[in-house]
Amino acid sequence: MSMIPFDQREGTIWFDGVLVPWREAKIHVLSHGLHYGSSVFEGERAYGGAIFKSEAHAARLIRSAELLDFKIPHTVAEIVAAKELVLRTSGLSDAYLRPVAWRGSEMMGVAAQANTIHLAIAAWEWPSYFDPQTKMKGIRLDLADYRRPDPRTAPSASKAAGLYMICTISKHRAENKGYADALMLDWEDNVAECTGANVFFVADGVIHTPLADRFLNGITRQTVIELARRRGVEVVERRIRPEEMAGFSECFITGSAAEVTPVAEIGPYRFTPATLTKTLMDDYTAEVQPKAEAA
Length: 295
Description:
The chain has about 300 residues and is of the alpha+beta class.
């Protein structure tokens, strides 16, 4: 099935406060964000016309920019309203949204204090990140060569575009070998995350997940931890060594795109998607659906 390139689609994109035709939402080739990675973004989903945790995503976008030493010229409320406008004018009910902010082209060099900060928001229809039939069986993950960086060397708490360079490389390598994605370790060889999703393991009814102080603490990750604890399931956030994966029975990954996706294999380690994974998949599906207003 062919896919329409993202610069050739129909519709409108919110660009610095106004809606512009999709194909006209362009930046200059000498934009600082393109050359030096001074760009941050969010990935969000709308279900039934409602954007899930829109305020939390907008707040994180602003925090991400601050970690890259620039200020987005819009408040959380203004960003939330802009996303709702984009969704409404797109005519979509279930959609993926991509807000992105970046430094413009006034200065070209490492220092760019005078550059204008831009913000754009697009929305499009996006089905399940992984093939539904494969998803229910559990996806296969490779072990990535690259490591998530030491927070002393990169703004790891920011959803910064530059931090995804090694993710793209790792995912390409995994897909070329027949895997769906790759699991990345941190710089001390502890389990970290996938290329665009957080990871969870299950042993004896207890959920174990890497402590998110060395990579992005996903909003979906936080939601799933809350859902598990609502059910009285113990969730342990800790350092996890790769060899420990041999002792886990279930594994799943989480993210706005991936939602809750079971994992059957990570390199030499095998898992069987079972009750706890399925329960959290169902709980997450119920959580993201718009709640009916009380009569």
